[in-house]
Design a protein that fits this description.
Layout (H helix, E strand, L loop, with lengths): L2 H7 L14 E7 L2 H19 L5 H20 L3 H15 L11 H20 L6 H4 L2 H9 L12 H7 L3 H12 L3 H15 L5 E5 L3 E5 L6 E9 L5 E6 L3 E9 L5 E3 L4 E9 L1
Antiparallel strand pairs: 1-4, 2-8, 3-6, 4-8, 5-6, 6-7
């Protein structure tokens, strides 16, 4: 469903699935660094939320590893918060062009604009860079220092980590939730911006001849993401490559040895070129 269709029915900020559902799997290619960062954040936040709902120490280890990856994203892209604020402001203003369309629900439009503006205000009110407080945490800093050493966080290396992993599950969950608090507005912003982008257009049926598909793009249209959608359980995956002017899709299957081989038959799929 397109963005105007969502605004006609009423749109919420619940996250859309980035990878797949029980009915379909979406393969996505970001066409700029901002969307690439948003996708990384969405995936990492989804991963840590999943692991932090589980009780085993191994899931807590996985959650901590993901937390360190989130810190790395913000360290490598220190302008992320500023970029997201600008994008929230831009989309809020852009949505005003839908205000006079008969099929748009004015209340849904105002609600979405209010969500965007509130998130932008919340992020502006946060002092410092995302993750700055957490990087000053001695426990997290010790883990960060040793994360790239094979076995560097085992008990004989970091007894304090072994002690933490032995705490009751509920206590570990609470610690992780506390550490995530400073990222929470960024998480909500990433999810909402990606949801709006994904729903900016309607996916259309296409056929890849002999497993290959290529399209030239209008560079003036400002495309930000390509989505290739296959039914869940399809015997192939989509490898998308390209940029703002052209992209191609190769469909691949895995053989019994786990090697990727090109599909040599026609493949039906859905394609969405997303732009805002």
């Amino acid at each position: 469903m397109s963005l105007t269709g969502q605004l006609a029915e009423g749109m919420t900020a619940s996250p859309a699935s980035a990878v797949g559902t029980c009915e379909a799997v979406a393969y996505e290619l970001p066409l700029n660094e901002r969307v690439r960062t948003l996708l990384r954040l969405e995936g990492l936040f989804g991963e840590i939320r999943h692991h932090n709902r589980q009780d085993s120490p191994w899931d807590s280890r996985a959650a901590i590893k993901t937390l360190l990856a989130i810190l790395t994203v913000f360290h490598n892209r220190p302008d992320t918060k500023t970029d997201i604020i600008k994008e929230l402001d831009r989309i809020a203003k852009l949505l005003q062009r839908y205000a006079n369309l008969d099929r748009v629900n004015p209340e849904a439009l105002r609600d979405l604009q209010a969500q965007l503006q509130k998130l932008a205000s919340t992020l502006r009110a946060q002092s410092g860079k995302p993750g700055e407080a957490l990087r000053k945490n001695d426990f997290i800093a010790a883990l960060k220092q040793r994360e790239n050493i094979p076995g560097g966080t085992l008990a004989f290396e970091l007894p304090s980590y072994a002690h933490w992993l032995a705490l009751p599950a509920q206590q570990r969950h609470q610690h992780i939730e506390t550490w995530l608090e400073e990222f929470e507005p960024m998480e909500r912003a990433a999810r909402l911006l990606l949801k709006i982008l994904r729903e900016s257009t309607t996916a259309r049926h296409q056929t890849a001849s002999d497993g290959f598909f290529q399209v030239n793009l209008d560079s003036e249209a400002g495309y930000q993401m390509i989505r290739v959608i296959l039914p869940a359980g399809a015997d192939c995956c989509a490898e998308i490559s390209g940029g703002r002017h052209r992209f191609s899709v190769r469909f691949l299957r895995l053989d019994t040895q786990g090697r990727s081989l090109p599909c040599k038959h026609d493949i039906d799929f859905s394609l969405a070129c997303c732009a805002l």
